[in-house]
Write a structure and sequence with these properties.
lipid metabolism, fatty acid metabolism, Rossmann fold, seven-stranded parallel β-sheet, alpha/beta, NADP, 9 helices, Sc_DH/Rdtase_CS, fatty acid biosynthesis, globular
Length: 246
């Protein structure tokens, strides 16, 4: 199995892409910590992971809160002794036109999508450096590259994630820690369930493969980048978008 005996933290692991990643990692031998503030769904995901024969624990955490993040990493090390993989998957949207966006909308998205990635990576970096190895995977987005109407806050965070990914790849690479990002296109998740049908159709038409991505499409990318098959990939941003970005 591609992740045999590896310990992985997946933030935002209770639903959507995070949950799909957790299930796929479990099938490939990983031990999992599911971090999320949705306790009900997080506990349910852990039960599904355990049903596959993998070890897993749920940790309730708000990734924008340093105390929660430090507790998350401490509990992971206590449970499994190490942290091999961090998937910074947690993310939210609070969309609005620039001229109408409230500061609270801006700050909450920045807190989860950008500060959360910083805090989680900072917390695991010391553990991985001491181990002499580790993999950090960050959730970027196609909107970081091309922008998107109504998503000033979201686009800003995802562009920031790309910048941090490349910086950390240079800082941590010499210590044996690889850092990469995945930039999904339009994916069928709870976020897109709120989108009007005519907009969804437009998304499909803009994508050369003429469909929305599925959570498994993104999970497969995470699995590859987390595995030893990607051992010479560092500082990359892998677009998984059906051809939307070229």
């Amino acid at each position: 199995m591609r992740l045999a005996d590896k310990t992985a933290i997946i933030t935002g692991g209770a639903n959507g892409i995070g949950k799909e990643t957790a299930l796929l990692f479990a099938k490939n031998g990983a031990k999992l910590i599911i971090a999320d503030f949705d306790e009900h769904s997080g506990t349910s995901t852990v039960e599904e992971v355990r049903a596959l024969g993998a070890q897993a624990h749920f940790v309730k955490a708000d990734v924008s809160a340093a105390d929660d993040v430090n507790q998350l990493v401490t509990r992971t090390v206590e449970a499994f002794g190490r942290v091999d993989i961090l998937v910074n998957n947690a993310g939210i949207t609070r969309d609005g036109w620039l001229v109408k966006m409230e500061q609270a909308q801006w700050e909450r998205v920045i807190g989860i999508n950008l500060t959360g990635v910083f805090l989680c990576t900072q917390a695991v970096a010391g553990v991985m450096i001491a181990q002499g190895e580790g993999v950090i995977l960050n959730a970027a987005s196609v909107v970081a590259l091309y922008g998107n109407v109504g998503q000033t806050n979201y686009a800003a965070t995802k562009a920031g994630v790309i910048g941090m990914t490349k910086t950390w790849a240079k800082e941590l690479g010499p210590k044996g820690v690889r850092v990469n990002a995945v930039a999904p296109g339009f994916v069928a998740t709870a976020m897109t369930e709120k989108v009007p049908e005519k907009v969804l159709q437009l998304m499909k038409e803009q994508t050369p493969l003429r469909r929305l991505g599925q959570p498994r499409d993104i999970a497969n990318a995470y699995l590859f980048l987390a595995s030893d098959e990607a051992s010479f990939i560092n500082g990359a941003v892998l677009s998984v978008d059906g051809g939307l970005s070229f």
